[in-house]
Amino acid sequence: MSRNEPLAYRMRPQKIEDVVGQDHIIGEDTALYKMIQHGHVPSMILYGPPGTGKTSLAFAIAGTMEKDFYALNATSDGKKDVEAVISETRITRNAIVFIDEIHRFNKSQQDTLLRAIEEGVFTLIGATTENPFHSVNNAIRSRCGQIKELKMLDESAVIALLKHALTDKANGLGHYSFQYEEDVLTHIAQTTGDARTALNILEDSMWASEQNDQKKIVLEKSVVSQSIENKGLNHDKKGDIYYNLLSGFQKSIRGSDVQAALYYLARLLEGGDIISICRRLLVIAYEDIGLANPEVCARVLPVVESVERLGLPEGRIPLSVIVVELCLSPKSNSAYKALDKAMHIVKKGKTYDIPNHLKDTHYQGAKSLGHGDSYKYPHHYPNGWVYQEYLPKELQHKTFYEPNEAGDEQRLAKIYNRLKELQTKHRK
Hints:
Layout: H1 7-10, H2 23-26, H3 31-37, E1 44-47, H4 54-65, E2 68-73, H5 79-92, E3 95-100, H6 107-119, E4 123-128, H7 132-135, H8 138-142, E5 146-149, H9 155-167, E6 178-180, H10 182-191, H11 195-208, E7 210-211, E8 217-219, H12 221-228, H13 240-254, H14 258-270, H15 274-289, H16 294-310, H17 316-328, H18 334-347, H19 409-427
Parallel strand pairs: 1-4, 1-5, 2-3, 3-4, 6-8
Antiparallel strand pairs: 7-8
Helix pairs in contact: 5-6, 9-10, 9-11, 10-12, 11-12, 13-14, 13-15, 14-17, 15-16, 16-17
Protein backbone atom coordinates (compact mmCIF):
# COMPACT_ATOMS: atom_id res chain seq x y z
CA MET A 1 0.00 0.00 0.00
CA SER A 2 1.07 3.59 -0.59
CA ARG A 3 2.32 5.55 2.41
CA ASN A 4 0.11 8.39 1.16
CA GLU A 5 -2.99 6.37 2.01
CA PRO A 6 -4.52 7.10 5.43
CA LEU A 7 -3.33 4.90 8.29
CA ALA A 8 -6.89 3.67 8.95
CA TYR A 9 -7.12 2.42 5.36
CA ARG A 10 -3.69 0.75 5.45
CA MET A 11 -4.47 -1.02 8.72
CA ARG A 12 -7.57 -2.83 7.44
CA PRO A 13 -7.27 -6.49 8.45
CA GLN A 14 -6.37 -8.94 5.69
CA LYS A 15 -7.67 -12.05 7.48
CA ILE A 16 -10.39 -12.60 10.08
CA GLU A 17 -7.69 -13.42 12.65
CA ASP A 18 -6.47 -9.82 12.26
CA VAL A 19 -9.83 -8.30 13.23
CA VAL A 20 -9.66 -6.39 16.53
CA GLY A 21 -12.79 -6.51 18.70
CA GLN A 22 -16.22 -7.76 17.59
CA ASP A 23 -15.57 -11.10 19.31
CA HIS A 24 -19.32 -11.63 19.61
CA ILE A 25 -19.46 -11.82 15.80
CA ILE A 26 -16.12 -13.17 14.60
CA GLY A 27 -14.45 -14.56 17.73
CA GLU A 28 -13.01 -18.07 17.52
CA ASP A 29 -16.01 -19.59 19.29
CA THR A 30 -18.63 -18.02 17.01
CA ALA A 31 -20.58 -19.85 14.34
CA LEU A 32 -19.51 -17.33 11.68
CA TYR A 33 -15.81 -17.86 12.40
CA LYS A 34 -16.22 -21.64 12.18
CA MET A 35 -18.22 -21.40 8.94
CA ILE A 36 -15.46 -19.34 7.32
CA GLN A 37 -12.76 -21.69 8.59
CA HIS A 38 -14.66 -24.56 6.96
CA GLY A 39 -14.84 -22.72 3.65
CA HIS A 40 -18.38 -21.36 3.78
CA VAL A 41 -19.47 -17.75 4.00
CA PRO A 42 -23.18 -16.87 3.97
CA SER A 43 -24.67 -13.67 2.61
CA MET A 44 -25.03 -11.24 5.47
CA ILE A 45 -25.84 -7.73 6.58
CA LEU A 46 -23.53 -5.91 8.98
CA TYR A 47 -24.87 -2.91 10.81
CA GLY A 48 -23.59 -0.54 13.45
CA PRO A 49 -22.22 2.98 13.99
CA PRO A 50 -19.52 4.42 11.71
CA GLY A 51 -16.00 3.21 12.48
CA THR A 52 -16.99 -0.14 13.98
CA GLY A 53 -15.31 -2.05 11.17
CA LYS A 54 -18.08 -3.15 8.82
CA THR A 55 -15.96 -2.60 5.70
CA SER A 56 -12.85 -4.00 7.38
CA LEU A 57 -14.67 -7.17 8.39
CA ALA A 58 -15.92 -7.65 4.83
CA PHE A 59 -12.35 -7.24 3.47
CA ALA A 60 -11.04 -9.69 6.09
CA ILE A 61 -13.66 -12.31 5.22
CA ALA A 62 -12.86 -12.00 1.51
CA GLY A 63 -9.12 -12.26 2.25
CA THR A 64 -9.58 -15.35 4.39
CA MET A 65 -11.80 -17.05 1.81
CA GLU A 66 -9.49 -16.00 -1.06
CA LYS A 67 -12.47 -14.78 -3.04
CA ASP A 68 -12.69 -11.97 -5.55
CA PHE A 69 -13.87 -8.79 -3.84
CA TYR A 70 -16.12 -6.13 -5.36
CA ALA A 71 -17.02 -3.02 -3.39
CA LEU A 72 -19.99 -0.83 -4.23
CA ASN A 73 -21.45 2.14 -2.42
CA ALA A 74 -25.19 2.69 -2.61
CA THR A 75 -24.74 6.47 -2.38
CA SER A 76 -22.85 6.62 -5.69
CA ASP A 77 -23.38 3.31 -7.54
CA GLY A 78 -26.65 2.48 -9.27
CA LYS A 79 -28.50 -0.36 -10.95
CA LYS A 80 -26.12 -0.47 -13.94
CA ASP A 81 -23.13 -0.88 -11.62
CA VAL A 82 -24.84 -3.76 -9.84
CA GLU A 83 -25.73 -5.42 -13.17
CA ALA A 84 -22.11 -5.08 -14.34
CA VAL A 85 -20.84 -6.83 -11.20
CA ILE A 86 -23.44 -9.59 -11.58
CA SER A 87 -22.40 -10.14 -15.20
CA GLU A 88 -18.71 -10.33 -14.25
CA THR A 89 -19.15 -12.63 -11.24
CA ARG A 90 -21.59 -14.99 -12.95
CA ILE A 91 -18.70 -16.68 -14.73
CA THR A 92 -16.46 -17.49 -11.74
CA ARG A 93 -19.09 -17.61 -8.96
CA ASN A 94 -16.25 -16.98 -6.55
CA ALA A 95 -16.86 -13.42 -5.39
CA ILE A 96 -17.94 -11.43 -2.40
CA VAL A 97 -19.85 -8.29 -3.30
CA PHE A 98 -19.73 -5.68 -0.56
CA ILE A 99 -22.37 -2.93 -0.71
CA ASP A 100 -21.87 -0.08 1.74
CA GLU A 101 -24.91 1.93 2.85
CA ILE A 102 -27.13 -0.76 1.32
CA HIS A 103 -30.22 0.82 2.90
CA ARG A 104 -29.86 3.68 0.39
CA PHE A 105 -30.63 1.40 -2.57
CA ASN A 106 -34.22 1.84 -3.70
CA LYS A 107 -36.53 -1.16 -4.15
CA SER A 108 -35.65 -1.58 -7.84
CA GLN A 109 -31.91 -1.56 -7.09
CA GLN A 110 -32.30 -4.03 -4.23
CA ASP A 111 -34.50 -6.29 -6.37
CA THR A 112 -31.68 -6.50 -8.96
CA LEU A 113 -29.62 -8.35 -6.35
CA LEU A 114 -32.22 -10.97 -5.41
CA ARG A 115 -31.86 -13.51 -8.22
CA ALA A 116 -28.05 -13.38 -8.15
CA ILE A 117 -28.02 -14.05 -4.39
CA GLU A 118 -30.51 -16.92 -4.75
CA GLU A 119 -28.51 -18.55 -7.55
CA GLY A 120 -25.25 -18.21 -5.66
CA VAL A 121 -23.66 -15.96 -8.28
CA PHE A 122 -21.91 -14.15 -5.45
CA THR A 123 -22.02 -13.76 -1.69
CA LEU A 124 -23.50 -10.45 -0.57
CA ILE A 125 -22.17 -8.53 2.41
CA GLY A 126 -24.27 -5.44 2.97
CA ALA A 127 -23.30 -2.73 5.42
CA THR A 128 -25.47 -0.06 6.95
CA THR A 129 -25.49 2.38 9.85
CA GLU A 130 -29.28 1.96 10.02
CA ASN A 131 -31.20 -0.86 11.67
CA PRO A 132 -31.73 -3.29 8.74
CA PHE A 133 -35.02 -4.48 10.20
CA HIS A 134 -36.31 -0.96 9.50
CA SER A 135 -34.36 0.07 6.42
CA VAL A 136 -33.52 -2.94 4.24
CA ASN A 137 -35.97 -4.66 1.91
CA ASN A 138 -37.54 -7.76 3.50
CA ALA A 139 -36.63 -9.81 0.43
CA ILE A 140 -32.95 -8.95 0.82
CA ARG A 141 -32.99 -9.69 4.55
CA SER A 142 -34.63 -13.08 4.03
CA ARG A 143 -31.83 -14.10 1.65
CA CYS A 144 -29.11 -13.15 4.10
CA GLY A 145 -28.25 -15.99 6.45
CA GLN A 146 -26.70 -13.65 8.99
CA ILE A 147 -27.61 -10.19 10.30
CA LYS A 148 -24.91 -9.00 12.66
CA GLU A 149 -24.71 -5.87 14.80
CA LEU A 150 -21.20 -4.46 15.23
CA LYS A 151 -20.51 -2.47 18.38
CA MET A 152 -18.15 0.33 19.28
CA LEU A 153 -14.76 -1.03 20.36
CA ASP A 154 -14.03 -1.15 24.06
CA GLU A 155 -10.97 0.55 25.54
CA SER A 156 -8.73 -2.54 25.51
CA ALA A 157 -9.55 -3.28 21.86
CA VAL A 158 -8.69 0.29 20.79
CA ILE A 159 -5.40 0.19 22.69
CA ALA A 160 -4.53 -3.14 21.04
CA LEU A 161 -5.34 -1.64 17.63
CA LEU A 162 -3.15 1.42 18.28
CA LYS A 163 -0.21 -0.69 19.50
CA HIS A 164 -0.48 -2.86 16.41
CA ALA A 165 -0.44 0.24 14.20
CA LEU A 166 2.66 1.57 16.00
CA THR A 167 4.60 -1.68 15.45
CA ASP A 168 3.35 -2.83 12.04
CA LYS A 169 6.20 -2.13 9.59
CA ALA A 170 4.30 -3.30 6.49
CA ASN A 171 1.18 -1.14 6.71
CA GLY A 172 1.41 0.81 9.94
CA LEU A 173 3.94 3.13 11.58
CA GLY A 174 6.46 0.47 12.61
CA HIS A 175 9.24 1.96 10.49
CA TYR A 176 9.19 5.01 12.82
CA SER A 177 10.57 5.06 16.34
CA PHE A 178 8.22 6.31 19.05
CA GLN A 179 8.42 7.38 22.67
CA TYR A 180 5.20 7.64 24.64
CA GLU A 181 3.59 6.96 27.98
CA GLU A 182 0.91 4.28 28.20
CA ASP A 183 -1.71 6.84 29.23
CA VAL A 184 -1.38 8.51 25.79
CA LEU A 185 -2.97 5.48 24.11
CA THR A 186 -5.48 5.17 26.94
CA HIS A 187 -6.43 8.81 26.37
CA ILE A 188 -7.28 8.06 22.73
CA ALA A 189 -9.11 4.85 23.64
CA GLN A 190 -11.22 6.59 26.24
CA THR A 191 -12.24 9.20 23.68
CA THR A 192 -13.71 6.89 21.05
CA GLY A 193 -14.71 3.32 20.30
CA ASP A 194 -14.44 4.11 16.61
CA ALA A 195 -11.40 2.34 15.09
CA ARG A 196 -11.10 4.73 12.16
CA THR A 197 -11.24 7.80 14.40
CA ALA A 198 -8.69 6.34 16.82
CA LEU A 199 -6.21 5.64 14.02
CA ASN A 200 -6.78 9.09 12.51
CA ILE A 201 -6.05 10.68 15.90
CA LEU A 202 -2.85 8.63 16.21
CA GLU A 203 -1.70 9.60 12.72
CA ASP A 204 -2.50 13.29 13.21
CA SER A 205 -0.72 13.27 16.57
CA MET A 206 2.38 11.69 15.02
CA TRP A 207 2.70 14.42 12.40
CA ALA A 208 2.13 17.11 15.05
CA SER A 209 4.82 15.71 17.39
CA GLU A 210 8.47 16.62 17.80
CA GLN A 211 11.54 14.35 17.68
CA ASN A 212 13.86 14.08 20.69
CA ASP A 213 17.65 13.80 20.65
CA GLN A 214 17.43 10.05 19.97
CA LYS A 215 15.42 10.75 16.80
CA LYS A 216 12.31 9.29 18.39
CA ILE A 217 8.90 10.78 17.76
CA VAL A 218 7.57 11.85 21.16
CA LEU A 219 3.80 11.38 21.48
CA GLU A 220 2.69 13.78 24.19
CA LYS A 221 -0.74 13.81 25.76
CA SER A 222 -1.19 17.55 25.14
CA VAL A 223 -0.66 17.08 21.39
CA VAL A 224 -3.01 14.08 21.33
CA SER A 225 -5.64 16.14 23.15
CA GLN A 226 -5.52 18.80 20.44
CA SER A 227 -5.93 16.11 17.77
CA ILE A 228 -8.86 14.60 19.63
CA GLU A 229 -11.03 17.71 19.77
CA ASN A 230 -14.49 16.96 18.34
CA LYS A 231 -13.34 13.75 16.63
CA GLY A 232 -15.14 11.46 19.05
CA LEU A 233 -18.59 12.61 17.98
CA ASN A 234 -21.04 10.37 16.18
CA HIS A 235 -24.38 12.05 15.65
CA ASP A 236 -26.87 11.50 12.85
CA LYS A 237 -30.27 13.11 13.28
CA LYS A 238 -31.90 10.46 11.11
CA GLY A 239 -29.99 7.41 12.27
CA ASP A 240 -30.00 4.84 15.05
CA ILE A 241 -27.29 6.70 16.98
CA TYR A 242 -29.53 9.74 17.30
CA TYR A 243 -32.55 7.80 18.52
CA ASN A 244 -30.41 5.69 20.83
CA LEU A 245 -28.99 8.87 22.37
CA LEU A 246 -32.48 10.23 23.01
CA SER A 247 -33.51 6.87 24.46
CA GLY A 248 -30.43 6.69 26.69
CA PHE A 249 -31.07 10.28 27.81
CA GLN A 250 -34.67 9.59 28.86
CA LYS A 251 -33.92 6.26 30.50
CA SER A 252 -31.07 7.78 32.51
CA ILE A 253 -33.39 10.50 33.85
CA ARG A 254 -36.06 7.88 34.57
CA GLY A 255 -33.43 5.86 36.43
CA SER A 256 -32.29 8.93 38.42
CA ASP A 257 -28.71 8.70 37.11
CA VAL A 258 -27.50 12.30 36.96
CA GLN A 259 -24.06 11.49 35.52
CA ALA A 260 -25.44 9.44 32.62
CA ALA A 261 -28.19 11.96 31.85
CA LEU A 262 -25.67 14.82 31.65
CA TYR A 263 -23.37 12.74 29.44
CA TYR A 264 -26.14 11.95 26.94
CA LEU A 265 -27.29 15.57 27.08
CA ALA A 266 -23.75 16.64 26.18
CA ARG A 267 -23.74 14.22 23.22
CA LEU A 268 -27.09 15.56 22.02
CA LEU A 269 -25.97 19.17 22.40
CA GLU A 270 -22.90 18.46 20.26
CA GLY A 271 -25.37 17.50 17.54
CA GLY A 272 -26.94 20.95 17.94
CA ASP A 273 -30.56 19.73 17.90
CA ILE A 274 -32.05 21.62 20.85
CA ILE A 275 -35.59 21.20 19.47
CA SER A 276 -35.51 17.43 19.93
CA ILE A 277 -33.92 17.78 23.38
CA CYS A 278 -36.65 20.18 24.50
CA ARG A 279 -39.45 18.03 23.11
CA ARG A 280 -38.04 14.99 24.88
CA LEU A 281 -37.77 16.89 28.18
CA LEU A 282 -41.45 17.81 27.99
CA VAL A 283 -42.34 14.16 27.44
CA ILE A 284 -40.06 13.03 30.28
CA ALA A 285 -41.63 15.50 32.72
CA TYR A 286 -45.14 14.15 32.30
CA GLU A 287 -44.30 10.54 31.46
CA ASP A 288 -41.74 9.83 34.18
CA ILE A 289 -42.19 12.49 36.87
CA GLY A 290 -45.92 13.09 36.58
CA LEU A 291 -47.98 13.30 39.75
CA ALA A 292 -44.97 12.63 41.97
CA ASN A 293 -43.80 16.21 41.38
CA PRO A 294 -46.27 18.34 39.39
CA GLU A 295 -44.31 21.49 40.24
CA VAL A 296 -41.23 20.39 38.33
CA CYS A 297 -43.43 19.37 35.39
CA ALA A 298 -44.76 22.94 35.29
CA ARG A 299 -41.21 24.31 35.25
CA VAL A 300 -40.10 22.42 32.16
CA LEU A 301 -42.02 24.53 29.64
CA PRO A 302 -40.50 27.86 30.85
CA VAL A 303 -37.06 26.20 30.60
CA VAL A 304 -37.83 25.08 27.04
CA GLU A 305 -38.92 28.59 26.12
CA SER A 306 -35.74 30.02 27.66
CA VAL A 307 -33.54 27.58 25.75
CA GLU A 308 -35.30 28.33 22.46
CA ARG A 309 -34.82 32.05 23.06
CA LEU A 310 -31.20 31.76 24.19
CA GLY A 311 -29.99 29.20 21.67
CA LEU A 312 -26.57 27.60 22.10
CA PRO A 313 -24.19 27.75 23.89
CA GLU A 314 -26.06 29.68 26.63
CA GLY A 315 -29.10 27.37 26.40
CA ARG A 316 -27.06 24.58 27.95
CA ILE A 317 -27.25 26.38 31.33
CA PRO A 318 -31.02 26.11 31.97
CA LEU A 319 -30.93 22.64 30.39
CA SER A 320 -28.36 21.47 32.93
CA VAL A 321 -30.52 22.72 35.81
CA ILE A 322 -33.75 21.06 34.68
CA VAL A 323 -32.05 17.76 33.79
CA VAL A 324 -30.47 17.45 37.23
CA GLU A 325 -33.79 18.37 38.86
CA LEU A 326 -35.72 15.80 36.78
CA CYS A 327 -33.15 13.13 37.65
CA LEU A 328 -33.43 13.75 41.37
CA SER A 329 -37.20 14.15 41.40
CA PRO A 330 -39.50 11.37 42.65
CA LYS A 331 -41.02 9.44 39.73
CA SER A 332 -44.53 8.31 38.82
CA ASN A 333 -46.15 7.14 35.60
CA SER A 334 -49.50 6.27 37.19
CA ALA A 335 -51.54 8.97 35.44
CA TYR A 336 -50.72 8.11 31.84
CA LYS A 337 -50.81 4.37 32.58
CA ALA A 338 -54.35 4.86 33.90
CA LEU A 339 -55.33 6.68 30.72
CA ASP A 340 -53.79 3.91 28.60
CA LYS A 341 -56.02 1.37 30.35
CA ALA A 342 -59.09 3.46 29.57
CA MET A 343 -57.98 3.95 25.95
CA HIS A 344 -57.50 0.21 25.58
CA ILE A 345 -61.14 -0.37 26.49
CA VAL A 346 -62.32 2.35 24.11
CA LYS A 347 -60.21 0.99 21.23
CA LYS A 348 -61.83 -2.41 21.71
CA GLY A 349 -65.14 -0.75 20.90
CA LYS A 350 -66.51 -0.71 24.44
CA THR A 351 -68.19 2.69 24.24
CA TYR A 352 -71.04 2.15 26.68
CA ASP A 353 -73.96 4.52 27.17
CA ILE A 354 -73.30 7.51 29.40
CA PRO A 355 -75.58 7.48 32.49
CA ASN A 356 -78.69 9.64 31.94
CA HIS A 357 -78.03 11.91 34.90
CA LEU A 358 -74.69 12.99 33.32
CA LYS A 359 -76.04 13.77 29.86
CA ASP A 360 -76.23 17.29 28.47
CA THR A 361 -79.31 19.29 29.44
CA HIS A 362 -78.56 22.52 27.58
CA TYR A 363 -81.17 22.18 24.87
CA GLN A 364 -84.94 22.12 24.64
CA GLY A 365 -86.38 18.66 25.02
CA ALA A 366 -83.51 17.20 27.07
CA LYS A 367 -85.72 16.89 30.14
CA SER A 368 -88.35 14.87 28.26
CA LEU A 369 -85.58 12.36 27.41
CA GLY A 370 -84.69 11.99 31.06
CA HIS A 371 -81.33 13.68 30.64
CA GLY A 372 -80.01 15.23 33.81
CA ASP A 373 -82.64 13.57 36.01
CA SER A 374 -81.39 12.89 39.54
CA TYR A 375 -78.02 14.55 38.92
CA LYS A 376 -76.52 15.74 42.21
CA TYR A 377 -74.50 18.96 42.05
CA PRO A 378 -71.42 18.30 44.27
CA HIS A 379 -71.04 21.94 45.30
CA HIS A 380 -74.37 21.74 47.11
CA TYR A 381 -73.00 19.12 49.51
CA PRO A 382 -70.54 19.27 52.44
CA ASN A 383 -66.89 19.04 51.33
CA GLY A 384 -67.99 19.28 47.70
CA TRP A 385 -68.65 15.56 47.35
CA VAL A 386 -71.72 13.35 47.10
CA TYR A 387 -72.08 9.76 46.07
CA GLN A 388 -73.32 9.09 42.55
CA GLU A 389 -72.10 6.89 39.69
CA TYR A 390 -70.21 8.49 36.83
CA LEU A 391 -69.04 5.51 34.80
CA PRO A 392 -71.36 3.53 32.52
CA LYS A 393 -72.91 0.72 34.55
CA GLU A 394 -70.83 -1.90 32.71
CA LEU A 395 -67.61 -0.30 34.00
CA GLN A 396 -68.62 0.73 37.50
CA HIS A 397 -66.25 -1.72 39.18
CA LYS A 398 -63.36 -1.02 36.80
CA THR A 399 -60.19 0.58 38.18
CA PHE A 400 -57.94 2.56 35.85
CA TYR A 401 -55.90 4.72 38.20
CA GLU A 402 -53.68 3.04 40.79
CA PRO A 403 -51.78 5.64 42.81
CA ASN A 404 -48.03 5.54 43.19
CA GLU A 405 -47.14 6.88 46.63
CA ALA A 406 -43.92 8.59 45.52
CA GLY A 407 -43.34 12.26 46.29
CA ASP A 408 -46.37 14.54 46.08
CA GLU A 409 -48.56 11.69 44.89
CA GLN A 410 -48.65 10.41 48.49
CA ARG A 411 -51.00 13.27 49.29
CA LEU A 412 -53.17 12.57 46.25
CA ALA A 413 -53.19 8.85 47.07
CA LYS A 414 -54.67 9.54 50.50
CA ILE A 415 -57.49 11.60 48.96
CA TYR A 416 -58.07 8.97 46.28
CA ASN A 417 -58.20 6.09 48.76
CA ARG A 418 -60.62 7.97 51.03
CA LEU A 419 -62.96 8.71 48.10
CA LYS A 420 -62.77 5.09 47.02
CA GLU A 421 -63.76 3.94 50.53
CA LEU A 422 -66.77 6.28 50.52
CA GLN A 423 -67.82 5.10 47.09
CA THR A 424 -67.56 1.45 48.08
CA LYS A 425 -69.53 2.09 51.27
CA HIS A 426 -72.43 3.74 49.39
CA ARG A 427 -72.51 1.01 46.74
CA LYS A 428 -73.17 -1.54 49.44
